[in-house]
Design goal:
InterPro entries: Sortase_dom-sf. The protein is built from one helix and two strands. By secondary structure, the chain is an alpha+beta fold.
Length: about 55
Amino acid sequence: MESTRMMFFQLPKYKDIEFYKKHPILIFDSIYDESKWKIISFMRVSGTYSHNDGFD
């Protein structure tokens, strides 16, 4: 996957269990190495201050 605005485009699809079953491994490729990661969890969070619930 190229380092573009689309880099994390597929991640929200992990909300669908069928998508996960077809794609349980992420391949992360950098200039230094290629690594494979098994998805064990998916958490969707907001990065905006207005959704801050007080946890640090």
